[in-house]
C-alpha cells in the first residue's frame, strides 16, 4: 500500500496506541483482577464474595432506583431548558449560562454543596424555619427514611448533571430544519402538536444519544451519594470505591467494576431498543 | 504513485511534534534516590487535609536546606501500591514516608523499608518515650522514627453538661453513665444529640477496636463474639438510638459539634481540635468512658521511614532530623495539633488553649487506673482493609439494620478468623500476645 493510502491509518496509530495502553490494557487487567482472589487464584471467589456481601443487593436496587427516578426527570427538565435556550425568549443567553453553570462544579463539590443545604443546620432548614413552614429542623439526611435520602440525591444529581443533557439536546434542536417548523405553523399546529409531531420525532436520535450518555454516567455517580447518604446508602459505584480505598481489596473493587460495566451495557441496549433509528425500524 | 515531498515533510513534522509533546508530558519529578525536580519527595498518609498539608509545606518544612515536595493522601492503599511499584522498578521517587505504625508494619513485613535503627540511635537527644519506641520496633529493629502521636477522646458542648447523671464525674464517666446522659439530653431537647464518626471517612472502626471492645471485654479478636461482646453491642444499639442519624455522614466530629447538631461526640483528637480551639469556652474535652473491663484506649503513632530502594538516604535522614527537631515539634503541635512522641513538658513555648485541653485529657486518660492501651492492628499486611470491614459490617448488621446480635457476631467471627488466617497474624494488645495465628473468640 502506498504511503499516501496508508497515511490515514498511520495517523490513527497514536490514538489507537493510547486507547490500547491506557484503556484497553487496564480494562483487561481489571477484568483479570475480578476473576482472581486476594491470594492470586483464578476463579469466581471475588465475584462470589461480592454477591454474598450483605450490601451488594441493596446497592444494586439503590442504583437502579436512582436511575429509573432520575432519567425521566432529567430528560423532561433538559427538554424544557433547551427549549428555553433555543426559543425566542429574551435573555436566553443568560439562561444558557445559568443552566450550564453546574458543569463547572465537580461531583464532589456538588455533593458538599448540597450537603450544606440539606444537613440539619443547613440552608434549607434555616429558610424553612425562617418563613415558618417548619418549627424544628427536618432531618433530610436521616438514613432511617431512605426515600427522603434518595430524594435529596435525586435533587442534587438533577441539578448537577442535567446541563450535560441540555448541551446535547440544544445541538439537536438547532439541527431541526426550520422548514418543518414553518410547515407546522402553516397548518396551524399548536405548541403541543409541534412538540409531539415535529420536534420530538426529529429529536429522537439526539434524545437517544443523551440517554445513553446519561445512563452510562449515572452508574458512576458516587461522590454525591457518599456526601448525602453516608455509609448507610450504597450504590454499585460507592461499593467499588469503598472496596478499593477503604478495604484495600482491588479484586472486590474490580468485581464491582465488572458488574457496573455489564449493567451499563444492558441499560444502553435497552435505550437502543426502545428508541430505534429510522434505519433500524426499516423505514 | 509515490509520496510527495510535501506529504513526507508533513508526516515527519507531525511525528516530531508528537514526540516533543509526549516528552513534555512525562513526569520529570523524582529521579532515583528520591530527589526530583521538585526536591525531596515526602509522601504521607497523615496530615492530608488542605489546611494540614499547607501547614506542613509553609511552616513545618520551613528552614530545611533543600526543597521538599510534600504529598499527602489518606489512602493507605495508594501509598502501599506506590511503594511496592517503585520497589519492583528498583528505584524510589519517594525519599521519605510518613505513615501510621500499622502501615509501617505492612511495609516492613514486605521488606520495603530501610532499617532505621542507626537513625533512631543517633536521635537519642530527642527524648522519645519508650512506649512509642517499642511500637516502632519490629523483629528487634527500628522500622521507622517516631514522629507524631495522638489518640481519641470525647468532647461535649457546655449546654450538655447540665444533663449529666447525678453523681457522674465528666472526667471519669462509665459507659452506662454516658448512655444515661445522652438519653437525658434526648428527652429534654427532643433531639438525638450524641454523635459518632460513622461516615465514609469516619473512624468508627477505631472506636469499636480500641475503645468499646477492650473496655467491655478486655480484648478485641479473642473476645469478638464473647458474651461480654453481646452486652457491648446491646449497649451500642441503645446509645445509637440517642445519636443524630446524620452520624452516618460524619467523617470529622468537630463540625457537627460547632453547629450544634451534636452535643456529645467521640473522635480522633485531631478531628476535634478545631472545635476546641474555635470555642474553647463552649466545648470541653474529656476522657473516653470506662467499661466493665477498664478504660480501653488507642494510642496512635505516626512515624518516618525511608524506602529500601532509595539509593542515597542521607538527604532523607537530614529531613528526619529537621522534622524531629524540638522547634519543629513545637510548630507541628501548634499548627496541626498532633502531639510529639516525647514529653510534652519539654516542648518550647507551651500549648495553645484547645491543644492544651486535649493534652490534659489525654494524660488524664492514660493515667486512669485500669486504662487498657490497645494497639492498631499489627501484622495484617494487605488484610488490614478486610479486618476493618469486619467491624464496619458488624456495626451495620447489628446497629443500622437491627439484626440479631449473636447471629451477626457468629457470621462476622468466621470472616474475622478468615482474615487473620490469611494474614497469619498473631494477636496484639489488648489480646494476650502469643505465638501462632490469633484465634477469634
Describe this structure in words.
The complex is a heterodimer of chains A (283) and B (441). Chain A has helices at 3-34, 45-52, 56-86, 92-100, 107-118, 123-130, 146-174, 178-186, 191-218, 223-229, 236-245, 250-274. Chain A has 283 residues and is mostly helical. Chain A has a single domain (54-274), classed as Orthogonal Bundle (MetI-like fold). The two termini of chain A are 39 Å apart. With 441 residues, chain B is an alpha/beta fold. In chain B, strands 1, 2, 3, 4, 7 and 13 form a six-stranded mixed sheet that branches. In chain B, strands 9-10-8-11 form a four-stranded mixed sheet. In chain B, strand 2 (39-44), helix 2 (50-60) and strand 3 form a beta-alpha-beta unit. In chain B, helix 8 (204-217) crosses helix 15 and helix 15 runs antiparallel to helix 16 (405-423). In chain B, 52% of the residues are buried.
Short description:
The complex is a heterodimer of chains A (283) and B (441). Chain A is mostly helical.
Jot down its keywords.
heterodimer; A: about 280 residues; mainly alpha; MetI-like fold; 12 helices; about 75% helix; about 0% strand; globular; B: about 450 residues; alpha/beta; D-Maltodextrin-Binding Protein, domain 2; 2 domains; 6-stranded mixed beta sheet; 4-stranded mixed beta sheet; 16 helices; 14 strands; about 15% strand
| Distance between the first and last residues' Cα of chain A | 39 Å
Helix and strand pattern of chain A: HHHHHHHHHHHH
Task: Identify the overall geometry of chain A.
Answer: globular
Number of domains of chain B: 2
Given this structure, which CATH class of the largest domain in chain B is correct?
Answer: Alpha Beta
Mean pLDDT of chain B: 88
Residues in helices of chain B, as a percent range: 40-55%
CATH top level assignment of chain A: Mainly Alpha
- Contiguous low-pLDDT stretches of chain A (5 residues minimum) are none
Major pleated sheet of chain A: none
Task: Give a quick account of the main beta sheet of chain B: strands, pairing sense, barrel closure.
Answer: 6 strands, mixed
The radius of gyration of chain A is: 23 Å
